[in-house]
Amino acid sequence: MITTEAIASVQWLFDKAIRENAGAGAACEVTVSPGLGPAMADDARRHLVVIGISSYLFRMVVLFDFDAAPRTLDYLSRRAGGEPGALQGQLLADAYGELVNMICGAAKRTLHEVFPHTGLSTPFTLESSCARYVCALDPAHSLTFAVNIGDQGDGQLGFRMTVCLCVAPGTTLDFTVARTAPANASSDSCGEIEFF
Fold it and tell me: Other C-beta atoms within 10 Å of 182: how many?
């Protein structure tokens, strides 16, 4: 069981992490809904990136569903300091993974204040067809975030993020995190990969 306060805390910390690490000062619209949301598209051009956040009491499986539209590739190229659309192959996969790691790393650091033994996995990419099996995780609760970042004329990133919250049978997850206003991520904490 997951309490409403724990769910509200998870929603807040991921919303904050998205705005601080993906928004980076650009216009950022985040819409949250309970559940797994509509089925992710089974499309080889899409990028499904998965990462895990775990402690002794819970496991979060976070799935990012990115499209491969030119606006998305331009956004990632600019983040990497290159020309629009310059990333391809492994460099593009790394750019998706770094964005995922930055968002979830920020969420994990906040969770770490409540759960000191929280760990973050390395992001990995799956074929988009794997998205149809998300329900097999049987989460105790899930949240879907629809994200749009940037202005239409300046290249925009649109992606969906699904957080699946899993707890052991008979376990109640009840916690709160201290809510502070979003701040710019410091340069010392950006892009680091954490292993456990």
Answer: 15
- Strand, helix or coil at 15? helix
Q: Give 165-176 pLDDT, tens digit per residue.
A: 999 888 899 999
Cα(16)–Cα(20) distance, integer angstroms: 6
DSSP letter assigned to residue 82:
S
93 contact partners, CB below 8 Å, separation of at least 6: 47, 125
At 18 the pLDDT is 93
What is the pLDDT confidence band of residue 128, given thresholds at 50, 70 and 90?
A: confident
Task: Provide the percentage of residues in the chain whose pLDDT is more than 90.
Answer: 45
84 to each of 33, 39, 155, how far by Cα in Å?
Answer: 32, 30, 9
Q: What angle do CA 85, 29, 155 make, to 5 degrees?
A: 20
Listing DSSP states for 94-159 in one string gives: HHHHHHHHHHHHHHHHHHHTT-TT-EE---EEE-GGGGGGGGGG--SEEEEEEEEES-GGG--EEE
Tokens linked to 154: 């300046």
